Amino acid sequence: MKKLPIKIITMGLLVGLVSGCNSAAYEYRKHPVAAEITVPIKQTVSAGETGLSVRFDKIESDTRCPINARCVWSGVAVVNATVLNNKGDSQLLKLSTVNYEKVNRSEKVFGKRVTLLDLLPKPVVGKSAKPELNPPSIKVKID
Questions:
Q1: Fewer CB in a 10 Å sphere around the end CB: N or C, the chain?
Q2: Average of pLDDT values for 85-108?
Q3: pLDDT digits (tens, 9 = 90+) for 55-71
Q4: pTM reported for the whole predicted model
Q5: What was the pLDDT predicted at 113?
Q6: Is 131 exposed, middle or buried (0-12, 13-18, 19+ CB in 10 A)?
Q7: From CA 1, how far away is CA 5, in angstroms rounded?
Q8: CB contact at 8 A, 140 and 115
Q9: Dihedral class, residue 6 (left if φ above 0, else alpha if ψ from -120 to 50, else beta)
Q10: N- to C-terminal Cα separation, the chain
């Protein structure tokens, strides 16, 4: 007789848990990331079905800590990019590798969020940057 309430409570919790899987909290799983692209400097890359293209214009500043160094602060890189839509409209963006002063990692443009994931190549102590051998590129997520 004592086991019956425990079984009822357990079944009730199980049913509640299973039925909760269809709630709005899981909507993000139905719509995965729209596009993650790598854009070389001075080039334009289409971002798949998003209807947007991204052009990496220039590196405005780069104070990132080199990979093999010990730094007090990780530093920040700020890049300029242009986002174009299917209609031919364009919007200039200034993005940074971390949220820094008035420059953010992500901005909303043409109804989509554009996020700077990385600026490549990463600086290395003792190696001078040779853009002709390894041109800079940005990794961007659009959703």
A1: N
A2: 94
A3: 999 999 999 999 989 99
A4: 0.74
A5: 95
A6: exposed
A7: 8
A8: yes
A9: alpha
A10: 55
Which is more confident, 15 or 24? 15
Residue 114 in tokens: 């554009």
Token pair 């940057």 is at which residue?
A: 129
Q: Render 27-95 in DSSP notation, one character per residue.
A: GGGTS--SEEEEEEBT-EEE-GGGSEEEEEEEEEEE-PPPTTS--SS---EEEEEEEEETTS-EEEEEE
3-state secondary structure at position 103: strand
Query: For residues 63-73, b (16+ Cβ closer than 10 Å) or e, as one string?
Result: ebbeeeeeeee
Q: Which amino acid is at 83?
A: V
What number is the average pLDDT over the span 98-111? 93
Cross-strand bridge partners of residue 58: 80
Q: 3-class SS at 136? A: coil
